[in-house]
Design goal:
Length: about 450
């Protein structure tokens, strides 16, 4: 039996789904964050469970040729990224394997997953930041913890976010504004949320507060609006003591209520509560590939389920007879309807509700020839999969940010064959991977 604080030399034989190295001691799997497959390392056991243990990387005895010096000063302390110690080729390879393993192991899908499509930007690629604010600072949570690490500059964020957090930090210090405390559930400012439109340059800053009144808000607004590019400053009120970042209520403090971005030549207006893919340039490539895979003739009715603000729906509208989008967030559907108008698209319809509840009603009127799925991490509701099997579309294009739930859902789509699986690196330096899969109905 392994004991805490014991040290071992181990061979790292693979990387787990979070990017951590995996080796064995006396047959027990040991997960070692920061280690790379092929390395010999010295680890100190920090946690022992029944069927696995966690080890802290103490020394790399034989480094992998893929090992690089991390360029982010917060690497290891910040829980945001996990892969700064790997070169990009190894990172892309890891993501391909992660998808391959999930499809095989969970979905029993026999397909050769293609190489991961690299991100056009490796740093500053995120268009959204959501920094927790606490007594320790403004930044990011430490790995597997709710302790905030103060971060002055995050390399995967747009540089403008550094200016925003600096202004808020100074403002809070100067006017003794209290940060939210997760334990006492008290305090004023909870999160700083920003969204930057890469292609149009518009920026929204949203200050999430615990209370209705934000004291000295006018002073903060005066300072923030001087940052070049900021077009919208919003206060969001979140009174709930949960991990959900945004509350229901937004108050416009300055500028426009929403920001506008373009994707592959189409215009999209985005509300604070609407989902928008976080890596704009990679999203353009991902959507282009999804549309290519759908291979539409112009005669099809397409369902775009989990459609958000209609980004995919409007991107395929020009190639289909009709597109029907379904989305659970009402603000996003409102954005989608306006986005259709703004782009002069008249063959797209949108419905608010849970896909699993709306689609059974939709199919009474009009079935789809092609279904596009882009669910959140938890994947599709089982009832929706059953409804899709009833519709019998010729093709299903599944976009996923979680290979495990993707694999589970693919296995449930009986009567369909996976034709292509392509990982996209949407989240460089993190272990997350986006993937697009084409399925065709077996006649
Ligand atoms: N296709 C969009 C959004 C994808 S994210 C894009 O690429 O931008 C997943 C979306 O599913 C989110 O907008 C989320 O609000 C929505 N969603 C979550 N659960 C849902 C459900 N049960 N039915 C419909 N939409 C849902």
């Amino acid at each position: 039996m392994l004991k805490k604080n014991e040290e071992f030399l181990i061979d790292i034989t693979g990387n787990g789904s979070e990017g951590e190295g995996v080796g064995r001691v006396d047959g027990l799997a040991v997960f070692v964050p920061g280690a790379i497959a092929g390395e010999k390392v010295r680890v100190r056991i920090v946690k022992v469970q029944k069927s696995y243990a966690f080890g802290k990387l103490m020394e790399v005895i034989t480094p992998s040729p893929s090992r690089v010096e991390p360029t982010c000063a917060h690497f290891g302390k910040c829980g945001g990224c996990a892969l700064w110690h790997m070169d990009y080729a190894a990172e892309l390879d890891f993501k391909q394997k992660k998808v391959q393993d999930a499809l095989k192991r969970i979905g029993n899908v026999e397909i050769e997953v293609e190489k991961t499509v690299p991100s056009p930007q490796m740093t500053e690629y995120r268009n959204k930041s959501q920094f927790p604010v606490s007594a320790e600072g403004i930044g990011f949570f430490a790995p597997r913890s709710h302790k905030v690490i103060d971060i002055e500059s995050c390399m995967i964020q747009n540089r403008l976010t550094d200016q925003v957090t600096k202004i808020v930090r100074d403002f809070m210090r100067e006017y003794k504004i209290s940060p939210y405390n997760e334990e006492t559930k008290k305090g004023d400012i909870r999160h700083i949320f920003t969204r930057t439109a890469k292609n149009t340059g518009q920026v929204m800053v949203c200050i999430v507060t615990k209370n209705n009144v934000m004291s000295k808000a006018d002073i903060l607004v005066e300072r923030l609006k001087d940052i070049d590019g900021i077009t919208s400053i919003v206060q969001n009120i979140n009174k709930k003591d949960t991990n959900v970042i945004l509350g229901d209520k937004n108050i416009l403090l300055w500028g426009e209520e929403r920001i506008t971005e373009t994707l592959n030549g189409l215009k999209f207006t985005i509300s604070p509560h609407s989902f928008f893919q976080i890596n704009t340039l990679q999203t353009e490539q991902l959507y282009a590939k999804a549309i290519e895979l759908a291979n539409l003739t112009g005669q099809e009715t397409v369902y775009d389920l989990y459609c958000g603000i209609g980004t995919i729906s409007l991107s395929v509208a020009g190639k289909a007879k009709k597109v029907i989008g379904v989305e659970i967030v009402p603000e996003a559907v409102k954005d989608a309807i306006e986005n259709a108008k703004a782009n002069n698209i008249d063959n797209a319809e949108f419905y608010v509700g849970k896909a699993e509840e709306v689609v059974p009603k939709l199919i009474q009127k009009e079935k789809a020839d092609v279904v596009i799925l882009d669910p959140p991490r938890k994947g599709c509701d089982q009832a929706l999969i059953e409804t899709i099997l009833e519709i019998k579309p010729k093709k299903v294009v599944y976009i996923s940010c979680n290979p495990a739930t993707l694999a589970r859902d693919l296995a449930l789509l009986q009567g369909y064959e996976v034709k292509k699986a392509i990982p996209f690196d949407m989240f460089p330096k993190t272990p997350h991977v986006e993937c697009v899969v084409l399925m065709s109905r077996v006649e």
